[in-house]
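Can anyone check this?
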Amino acid sequence: MILNFLAPTCANCDRRSFKMLCADCQSEMKFQGCLGPSIEAAFWYRGGLVDWLRDIKEGRRPERLREILPFLPPAPQDLDVLVAAASDPTSRARRLFDTSDAFAQLLSKHWGIPLLKNFFERRPFLSAQKNLKFGDRKSYLKKLVKISDRYKGVKLGRILLVDDVYTTGATIEVHQGLLKPLASEIRIFCLLRAPAIS
């Protein structure tokens, strides 16, 4: 009986599973849509994955990101560097880490692609952006995000931009705009795809 209680379970359905997601939920939660050219997301941001990411962020447990490794696609080919999207510094200070940066570090190590740390700088945004629509998000982010001075003007080649959650696409679009003059190619990989805000 104790073994049943201690057996690991699926993060989505709570059935016994020695992986983060059981085979049924992996198939159900895998993001199958297209976000646009060169943009990929691993899973839908719903069900047990919402609680999983909340535990990582609010529980200050970035080590739990490793649980996703068996479900990631193979390493993208022909990339020169990874960069992480900038997160709100207020959230980063409260959590003691940056989720997108922690995910980018994990991918860099797992895929063997160099990571340019602290590539972007971001000023605090004093309101929750998760409830903003695309245009409002983009407008605010353009004022808040910039390339760190040490990377300005550096030609980077083929870049993989990494973010934790793709919601409206505003964060990605603003970061892409900043990267375009420095890159020969920009690809995007997001851990989770949130349902679009209407």
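Reply from J.R.: I decoded it. Confidence is low (pLDDT under 50) at residues 1-7.
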